[in-house]
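Annotated sample (chain length 176).
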Amino acid sequence: MVDVRRVKLPGVGVLHTFETDGGGKVGVVTHRSGQSDLITFADAEDHANSPKVSLRLDEDEAHTLAELLGGTRITESLSKLDQIPGLSIDWLAVDYDDYIAGQPLGDLATHGVVGLTVVAVVRGESANPAPADDFKVFPGDTLVVAGSPEKVAKAFNFYRTGEMKAKTSVDAPPGS
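Output written by the structure step:
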């Protein structure tokens, strides 16, 4: 198992780093804005001529890269379900200015959304499957939600704004 170091960057976000078997160092800076920076770097011990890379990714690009690299176990487990007609499975990365940040998940049925499930809340390197209504959500968490595309869109809008009326089209991705 790879040893991942996590460092909070005040005012920026979080830096996760690990060393590869070949001695390379890789890092991901996850900004509070949702953007991520994929970086490689060298320690002071390494040669000054070591190649360094920095690539800025928006939220969608970061998810795409994660999928291409193998994604998470949750992604792998749910990818087959995503092909069922009428079922949408999507991920919402919680940001500091989202309504749900610092709040318990609550019961969306009390807000008129029935037939939607929060499958898991991913926090750091661990998943909290089937979280209870009182599970508190924090910035940096990722909500994994399953339901019809319309209900997922309504839930994402509620989690972002606190309003139940969906502002996104059914044809648009729920996280947009």
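Annotation: The chain has three helices and nine strands.
Annotation: The radius of gyration is 18 Å.
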